[in-house]
Amino acid sequence: MKALQLQGIQKVAWVDVPVPPIRSSELLIRTGAFTICTSDQNDTRENPYGIAYPVPKGGQRARN
Known about the structure:
Strand order of the largest sheet: 2-1-4
Shape: elongated
Strand content: 25-35%
Mean pLDDT: 81
Largest sheet: 3 strands, antiparallel
Number of domains: 1
Distance between the termini: 15 Å
Helix content: 10-25%
Number of strands: 5
Order of helices and strands: EEEHEE
Low-confidence stretches: none
Radius of gyration: 13 Å
Number of helices: 1
């Protein structure tokens, strides 16, 4: 599946990642669009919290 991945300061990539294991109480849903929030944008510009790279981003809002 595809994921938006923060790989460093001002470096974001659209990457292939493995589908995570799904438990019997969970669903895997295909989405057609998603957004990132303001804090994700700040992390992309500055990394003020020392986030370890790479890290997936987005998903606060998803649409099928």
